[in-house]
Design goal:
- By secondary structure, the protein is mainly α.
- 76% of the residues lie in helices and 0% in strands.
Length: 288
Amino acid sequence: MSATTQTPQKLRTRKPLTVGAIAKNLSALVIAVVFVFPVYWMFSSSLKPQHEIMTKDPVFVFTPTLENYTTATGVDLFWTYVRNSLTVTVGAVLLALLVALAASFAIARLRFKGRKGIVLIVMMAQMAPWEVMVIAMYMISRENDLLNSIPMLMLIYFVMVLPFTIWTLRGFIAAVPVELEEAAQIDGCTRGQAFRKVIFPLLAPGLMSTSLFGFITAWNEFAMILMLNKDKESSTLTLWLTQFQTAFGSDWGATMAASTLFALPVLIVFLFLQRKAVGGMTAGAVKG
């Protein structure tokens, strides 16, 4: 008897499938296909033999081969480019997080003269296109004999990702009730200890979202590396990827393999951080 009475109730709570819902689902499906298909084609082409890539009719069923990846990774200084890219990207992100934690805490918790002006400057720096600073950065690097310098490139990337990191973490710190910090101080913690033991553990979504944004920004940056680090020993994968087609002529298979290898670290970082990062970007942007 109970089963017969529960079944109609469940059926009544199910929402009818309307034309609007169908249209939204179809739109989402079309958008997903439009964005995913180029990635699929890049990856599948990297596994195809050359004669199956340069055909008039697309080939969807083929025998995979790793020859293109062997060609891509066999380029001179490939692993040097990998090391340089990881060094400048990870270093810039870690420096930005370290400085932004202190700066965002000061902006969110302390009241001092010029605080609103600093917030305005951070917003302006975040919105400014960094490409217009290429000439200024080049002149500064040249005058200080820092052209083709990995530390200088890391410092520039650090400055590029810092405004967004400060702005986002400020929202997360402001969202933490100040009563929690005061309660920790009453229990004997200093202000630094209260931040480390109470506020910092609650900033995980913000740290992940800003780390993801900073990693993508620094990893994909092209204008600065093109102007400042022309020496092959100090180049990164971004510049190497743009020269790949020139180096290998019409070897599209190796080019697609190089593109896949370049996108792989960003994909790994995103898959690792995506659960916290999506909510972190929206929460940190609107709170505080």
